[in-house]
Amino acid sequence: MPAFAGSAAEPPLVDSYHALLRRCGDDGVPIVEEAQTPSLPVVECELPMIDVGCLTSGGGSSSPEQRAACAAAIVRAAQEWGFFQVRNHGVARELLDAMRREQARLFRLPFEAKATAGLLDGSYRWGTPTATSPRQLSWSEAFHVPLAGVSGDGGCDFGDLTALRDVTREVAGAMSRLAGTLARVMAEALLPAGDGCCLFPERCNETTCFLRLNRYPPCPVSPDAFGLVPHTDSDFLTVLSQDHVGGLRLMKGARWVAVKPIPDALIVNVGDLFQAWSNNRYKSVEHKVMTNATTERYSVAYFLCPAYDSPIGTCEEPSPYRAFTFGEYRNKVQEDVKRTGKKIGLPNFLV
Fold it and tell me: In what residue span(s) does the Fe2OG dioxygenase domain sit (predicted)?
C-alpha cells in the first residue's frame, strides 16, 4: 500500500457542504425535506423483535408450531413495517465486535489511501457526487463491496489489513445464510398452498450480493444533515448491524420515526425487489440516517441481490409491474439519481 504521510483521514465533506450551500445561494432551501410536519417531534420506536433461533439453528429442538409462529411474525412485520429486528440470528456478537474494530482501522487510513489505493476493489465512496444542494448530500463514507470479491481466493485487495479480510469473509457468510433463510420463509408465505417447491431467491449468492461497510463522521455544520439521504433499498432484503449511536429513521405512516438501537439485534428490511415480487404485500420503506454532531457511527449492511440479468418475477399474476431485470432496475435508478438528484424506483416500472 502506498504511503500517505501526513494525510488526513476524513473525506472533504465540509468542503462539499459549503460548496453546495454557495451553489444554492440564499434561497432558503431547507437541508431536510420535512416541511409537511415541521412541528412534530421525532418519536423513537422499537421495531418488531423476532426470535429466529428456530430457523437459524436448524430447528432441531423447535416444534412445527414454533416455526410457523416465527414465520407469521416475520411476514406480519414485513407487511406492516417493512422493517423488523431479529435475535438468535446466528451472527455471533464476537464476530460483529471484531468487524467494528477492523472497520475503525480501515476508515482511519488516510483519505488518499481510501480513495485512490484500490482497497477492497476500489469500492470506496464518500459524500454524494450527484448532489446539487446540501439536502442531497450524504455525510458518510463507505466501502460497497461485491461478495464475489470478499469470498474465496483471488478476491479483494485488502492491503495490509489481513484481519479485516478474514472477519469480512466471516460476516458476509453469516449474514448471507441469515438473509437466505429469511427470504425463503417470506417467499413461501406468499406461494399457493401445497406448492412445496420454493426456488426463491433464485441466483442470489456470493457472486451477486453486496456488503457495505459504513462510517458516519461527526457533522459539525448542521444538526439536520443527512448521514444517508432518504431512500429505499434496491435489493430483495437487507441485513444491518448498527452500533449504539443511533441515527436510523424510517417512514411509518406519514412521519419519520427513530429506530432505537438494541444490543445484539440485527435489523432486517424489505427492498424494492421483494416489494415487486410480492405484488406490494411486503413494503420497501423509505429510510435515512441522521448525523451526530460529536460522535461517529458505524454499521455493516448485507444486500441480498440476484444476478444483473435475472428477471424479477412475481409470486402470482397479474402483477402491478412490467417485467424487468435487476440490471435494468439498477441502471434506471442510477440514471434518475444522476439526472434529478434522487431515486424514483418502482414507480418507473408500473404497468
Answer: 207-306
In a domain, residue 25? The reply is no
Q: Which three cell numbers stand for residue 261?
A: 438501537
Quote the Cα angle for 217-173-111, to 5°.
Answer: 25
What stretch of H or E contains 257? strand 255-259
What is the C-alpha separation between 273 and 236, in angstroms, rounded? 5
Kindly state whether residue 130 falls inside one of the protein's structural domains. Answer: yes
Count of the separate structural domains present in the chain: 1
Q: What is the CATH number of the domain that holds 132?
A: 2.60.120.330
Q: For residue 59, what is its C-alpha cell?
A: 430447528
User: How far is residue 111's CA from residue 29's CA, in Å, rounded to a whole number?
Assistant: 30
Compute the distance between CA of residue 56 and CA of residue 337 in angstroms, rounded to an integer.
37
Q: Which residue has 429513521 as its cell numbers?
A: 249
- The position carrying cell 412485520 is 77
C-alpha cell at position 219: 457533522
Is 101 strand, coil or helix? Answer: helix
What is the C-alpha to C-alpha distance for residues 172 and 178, in angstroms, rounded to an integer? 10
The closest alpha carbon to 336, from 348, 327, 350, belongs to 348
**How many residues can be counted in the chain?**
351
Residues 13, 11: Cα–Cα separation, whole Å = 6
Rounded to 5 degrees, φ, ψ at 66 are -65, -45
CA 214, 329, 333, 149 torsion-angle sign: positive
Tell me the DSSP string of 161-226: -HHHHHHHHHHHHHHHHHHHHHHHHHHHTTSPTT-----PSTT-STTT-EEEEEEE----S-TT-E
296 has pLDDT over 50? yes
Look at residues 289, 348, 249 and name the one whose alpha carbon lies nearest to residue 137: 289
Grid coordinates representing 17 are 457542504
pLDDT tier for residue 67 given thresholds of 50, 70 and 90:
very high
Q: 9 lies in a domain?
A: no
Mean pLDDT of the chain: 88
Instruction: Give the whole-angstrom CA distance, residue 57 versus residue 308.
Output: 31
